[in-house]
Amino acid sequence: MKKTNKKGFTLAELLIVVAIIAVLVAIAIPIFTAQLEKSREATDLANVRAAYAEIVAKYIEDGQAHSATIALKSNGSDNKIGAGDVAGVSNDAILKNGTSVEVKVDADGKVTIANQPAKSSFVGS
Fold this sequence. Notes:
With 125 residues, this protein is of the alpha+beta class. The chain has helices at 11-62, 91-95, and strands spanning 66-71, 85-86, 89-90, 100-105, 111-113, 116-117. A four-stranded antiparallel beta sheet has the order 1-4-5-6. It has a two-stranded antiparallel ribbon with strand order 2-3.
């Protein structure tokens, strides 16, 4: 007697499932990498803001020149964060600067970020 009740999936059904999964992965990988780069850029900008706050606080405390160098984690090729600024310096100017950004305040209280003048209204002189 032959068994007529076959259980399981055919090869065609399994191939279709594998093809669907492959398409979903092909769509998800670029989206994931874009979001990963966006998070790196956000981290870099937060680090620059923190360095800015730190050197301004030090300047207000002692009136001397200070600087901080922040190593960038993003690749800087394409700003995914969008428009915005850190203390008056655009995100593009900060992120496209290369592998690091320098935040400086001189003895006169002038602040520069990535060799761009920052808003001076935050510095008390």
